[in-house]
Amino acid sequence: MIDLHMHTTYSDGTESCSTVLKKCKEKNLDFISITDHNTALVYEELEDKNISSLFNGHIIPGIELNTKALNIPIEILGYGIDYKKMNQLVKNVYIPAEERNKIEVKRLYDKCINAGIILDKNCLENYSPDMFASTFFHKEITKHEENKKILSEEAWNSSKIFYRQYMSDPKTKLYVEMDDFVPDFETASNLVRMAGGLVFIPHIYEYKKNSEPILEHILQNYKIDGIECYYTTFTEDQHERLLNICKEHNLFISGGSDFHGTIKPDVDIGCGYGNMQIPNEILDSWKNKVKFFK
């Protein structure tokens, strides 16, 4: 079995590289990829044999990059990258995570005030730059029942959905402009290719009502190598639709849990919510096109 989508403390995961590798070994996974956001520094840690030996399967160097399509923030996955080259490339395009967080917090605060959202006085004094703006403001907004009339029930109950439905949607009052620090799709995908990797579209249905327009736009306008067809939250219909799209467009197939540790406590490595199984066979068509870490 495989899991090609997981995060460590090098980005927004809560588990160390060592802990993630131990979990992968416990799950008897054969192929994995750690795909931290906008960094591949975890692979420099893996150069330590004492660390990499904690997992006895195969590792494909990977990364998840923030980008945009139709002016909506999305992500791409890069597989088989030269991680040292990638780490140099991202420094030229992406600002440090804490700096980005601070910018987003300031912009979202202004949007909240303009939208008439009730917040605690001086709430920004409680903010720490290692926190995502969506996580921080979701907590602040939901302190006040009066704000329920502004958010959907889904977004009220989930900071992740709040991010996708409001912060990332240009049609809402809480949309946060990111053009000055999030590269366009072509720029981000070119970084992956410059580092020798393949470009995949992950968790397309996480973008909710924008999912189909985004996917169609990408398929019509950009070169990609594959789609993540196995994902923790996908329904069987979504899974089958993506498999058919890959067949129609001659694209590779990937899959992963999107493990983050305690940030997503119900999502486990290798199995998502518990019943996801990703077969090794999906790698047969492209594993010889990427460089393995080991």
Structural features, described:
It is a single chain. A five-stranded mixed beta sheet has the order 4-5-6-7-8. It is built from eleven helices and eight strands. The protein has two domains: 200 residues, Metal-dependent hydrolases (TIM Barrel, Alpha-Beta Barrel); 71 residues, no CATH class. The mean pLDDT is 96. It is an alpha/beta fold and 294 residues long.
Number of domains: 2
CATH topology of the largest domain: TIM Barrel
Question: Termini, distance in Å?
Answer: 16 Å
Helix amount: 25-40%
Strand count, sense and barrel status of the largest sheet are: 5 strands, mixed
CATH class of the largest domain: Alpha Beta
The CATH superfamily title of the largest domain: Metal-dependent hydrolases
Count the DSSP helices.
11
User: What is the 3D form?
Assistant: globular
Q: Detail the poorly predicted runs.
A: none
Identify the strand order in the major beta sheet.
Answer: 4-5-6-7-8
Secondary structure class reads alpha/beta
CATH architecture assignment of the largest domain? Alpha-Beta Barrel
Beta-strand percent range: 5-15%
| Average of pLDDT | 96
Radius of gyration: 19 Å
Tell me how many strands there are: 8
Kindly list the characteristics that best describe this protein:
294 residues; 5-stranded mixed beta sheet; alpha/beta; 2 domains; 8 strands; TIM Barrel; 3-stranded parallel beta sheet; single chain; 13% strand
Give a summary of the structure in a few sentences:
This protein is of the alpha/beta class and 294 residues long.
